[in-house]
Amino acid sequence: MVVSLFALPAATAQARVNPFPYINAIPNPVKVATPTLLHVGSIYPLPWEMAPGWTGLTVEITKPDTSTEILGPFTTDLTGGTGVQYTPAMVGTYTLRTHFPETRLQPPALADGDLQAQSWKKLIVNHSTLLSYRSR
Question: Which of 22, 65, 105, 107 has the largest count of CB atoms under 10 Å?
Answer without folding.
Answer: 105
